[in-house]
């Protein structure tokens, strides 16, 4: 989370274990902490792996589950 130690840009750049990887930033949205977010791993501009990341308040850590099925935009209209 943004208020946790080690979340400054200098720390993130120093901890890049994957050569050629790029960090991106997004605005903090409090709902993400409650509902979680999907994280998509792109290689060569193509999605190769998706997880649903959720924050565990009790443990103060993130956990994730692989996402292997998706709703189409048409299906979302009815949810």
Report on the structure:
This protein is an alpha+beta fold and 79 residues long. The protein has a domain at 27-76. It is 20% helix and 30% strand. The protein is built from three helices and three strands. Strands 1-2-3 form a three-stranded antiparallel beta sheet. The longest helix is centred in the first third of the chain and has 6 residues, at 9-14. The protein is globular and about 45 Å long.
- Kindly estimate the percentage of residues that lie in beta strands according to DSSP: 25-35%
Straight-line N-to-C gap: 29 Å
Computed Rg: 15 Å
Structural class: alpha+beta
Main pleated-sheet profile: 3 strands, antiparallel
Mean pLDDT: 80
Characterize the overall form: globular
Helical content band: 10-25%
- Please tally the β strands and state the result: 3
Q: What is the spatial order of strands in the main beta sheet? A: 1-2-3
Number of helices: 3
Low-confidence stretches: none
The arrangement of helices and strands along the chain is HHEEEH
